[in-house]
Design a protein that fits this description.
about 290 residues; mainly beta; Immunoglobulin-like; 5-stranded mixed sheet
Length: about 290
């Protein structure tokens, strides 16, 4: 993600998952050898059980050690804000409704993206009921962007920020307070156009296209990490996305086979505001 446009990145899709390192100044130990500070790891979110730590907050941490003694924690360990560990604190409840016309909500979700967090991964997600209602219970108090995502045949067909805009720079902040029970939020879902994106993947010299190669379009817009597409590359190197939402994307090639470690791919920026054809991507030998 941080590589400059035009730079090379690994084409290997089978890499270790990213992790977040967190350092604590320790007030007290309940169990274990006492230290003045502790370094531990957690996931970055999005299904890896990562805990959403915030700088400057106090936590009651339940950590576990691996074979080397390194400490880790996650959302299922009991770790929580210190203020929430005391009896009598009610969980935050935040509910609302998605207003849309003619959109199938069967494969749709809403996500909470923490504002000021370095991770682009959502901290919470909620499924939509048939009537468009949703509810988050127990979300950490703080400021968030609320995002609606709808898919059809695994393709993102709608991506909208609260109160009903396509870009994070136009989005409104949702504030969650401790013990708050809010049920009045309405998220308007406007119709969004889609465009085709097609092109070709180049390999050097007389090299053969590596098996299980895919082209990825990943949104380059702030806080739009959930907006992305993938498409298998034909043996002749061609690819074709039929429906892509407008916006700026990073395009690159991934290889999901034993040959992956031998390849790099060049990061390209694509502005999708009309149909795009003739997009040229590249695989390079290491």
């Amino acid at each position: 993600m941080e590589t400059k446009v035009g730079g090379l990145v690994p084409a290997d899709l089978d890499q270790d998952e990213p992790a977040l390192q967190v350092t604590f100044d320790v007030a007290s130990f309940r169990k274990g050898a006492e230290r003045s500070y502790v370094l531990l790891t957690t996931g970055v979110g999005g299904g890896d059980c990562g805990f959403d730590f915030e700088i400057g907050k106090k936590y009651l941490v339940f950590a576990y050690a691996d074979e080397s003694g390194h400490l880790s924690t996650g959302i299922c360990s009991g770790t929580r804000l210190l203020e929430d560990s005391h009896a009598g604190v009610l969980p935050t409840k935040f509910c609302g409704h998605v207003a849309t016309k003619g959109l199938d909500l069967e494969d749709s979700q809403v996500f909470l993206l923490p504002i000021g967090n370095n991770s682009p991964i959502p901290s919470d997600e909620a499924e939509l009921e048939r009537d468009g209602s949703f509810c988050f219970v127990g979300a950490t108090p703080g400021n968030y962007h609320l995002v609606f995502v709808s898919r059809a045949e695994e393709l993102v067909t709608s991506f909208v920020f609260f109160p009903g805009v396509s870009y994070s720079t136009e989005a409104s902040t949702v504030e969650l307070k401790a013990g708050q029970a809010r049920t009045d939020l309405s998220l308007e879902i406007p119709p969004q156009p889609t465009f085709s994106v097609s092109g070709n993947v180049q390999v050097p010299g007389k090299s053969v296209m590596p098996p299980d190669s895919k082209v990825f379009l990943l949104s380059a817009e702030p806080l739009s990490f959930l907006l992305g597409y993938s498409k298998e590359v034909d043996p002749n190197g061609s690819f074709d996305f039929s429906r892509v939402l407008p916006g700026k994307y990073w395009a690159f090639v991934g290889v999901d086979s034993e040959a992956a470690a031998n390849w790099m791919t060049r990061k390209v920026e694509v502005d999708v505001s009309v149909a795009v054809s003739g997009l040229s991507l590249e695989l390079v030998h290491k």
